[in-house]
Amino acid sequence: MTDHADSSASVPEILAPGVYARRRARVQHEVRERGLGGAVIGTGPELAYLTGSWTSSHERLTALVVPPVGDAKLIAPATDATALASLNEAAGIQLVTWRDGENPYALVEGACGTGPIAVGSALTADHVLRLQDVCGDIVLATEVLAAAFMVKDQEEIEQLSFAGAAIDRVHAAVPELLQPGRTERDIAAELDTLILREHSRTDFIIVGSGPNGADPHHDFSDRVLEVGDPVVVDIGGTVGAGYHSDCTRTYVVGGAEAADRGFTRAYETLRRAQADAVAAARPGMTAGDLDAVARGRINEAGYGTYFTHRLGHGIGLGLHEEPFIIARSETVLQTGMAFSIEPGIYIPGKWGMRIEDIVVLEDDGARRLNTARI
Predict the structure, then answer these.
(1) Which domain covers residue 236, as residue numbers?
(2) CATH value at residue 332
């Protein structure tokens, strides 16, 4: 990652080998405890979490095999051997290469122990079906990986904290960008530049003004901003070893005093709902109970119909990952989990609003990683 123009600190692009070894040991423990023959992980965030590698082999199979005992093996095309040379036995991973015309699925089967094989979410159906032909019983690795991934280690929290501060610096510049006569697209272009000053990559940009803000997943358009328009600005980028920022603020063109009274009343409800949820978050409560804290206040104020999505999502190497803070979820929140708290109210044809912070759950409650003004 390049140096940050407005930052005196940085975070590493790859962590110490011992960090990845510790993570693989947690997954291996889960594999053994569940009586599985192994976990088979494809390329993407899951592989990066366990190895530090973001390699991509396209249609060829690349998969990390974590057996119940012994070292993990990375099954990869011989064409990628040089790029993966650092993932060797000294790092606790044996690199096993295969050539076109050979059967890599048999190599996976040979690296596994006895029992069902748990496959990661990145493996596509063509790979899963061929694995099933040689390995037999296939199950999803969702629970195996979630048990290891949901609770962040200190290195991850450092990366996420850095990301949170980086996106805060971008949000600090937003009010000056929101001038009447400019388009959402104009503002998005400037935001992209600002995000890239603080991050290695822009992940997404939402600039939803006026009625466009009522679409939670609007990106940006040629709509021209007018005085009094509420504007939902949801932005995020990637830092360091692949960790993400994600923060939403809702602004008003011309300042808060330019907003209509209906918007102002709803926004105060939203602000309190978000603050209540942050204050209530504790280890031991369920994700569903936390969702109910914010949803309850919004319902009481009469806006419940217009809060159309879950309260939040986990974040790490995946922009959206477990735990999902969603109604009726029985997932028990634990110290070290990192997730968004982002209630919203969306009135079709008029405006929308959302406030989103990433928090890390500590023993005594949630710590915000975003401190940009609300």
Answers:
(1) 154-368
(2) 3.90.230.10
- Per-residue pLDDT, 217: 93
| Residue tagged 């679409």 (tokens) | 215
pLDDT number for residue 8: 43
C-beta of residue 232 within 8 angstroms of C-beta of residue 248: yes
- Average predicted confidence (pLDDT) for the chain: 95
* Mean pLDDT along residues 304-308: 98
- Phi then psi for residue 228, to 5 deg, are 95, -10
**Tokens 């009586």 appear where?**
35
Cα gap 102→257, rounded to integer Å: 68
**373 domain residue, yes or no:** no
Token digits for 53? 């590698």
Q: Are residues 51 and 163 in the same domain?
A: no
Q: State percent of the chain over pLDDT 90.
A: 91
* CB of 17 closer than 8 Å to CB of 92: yes
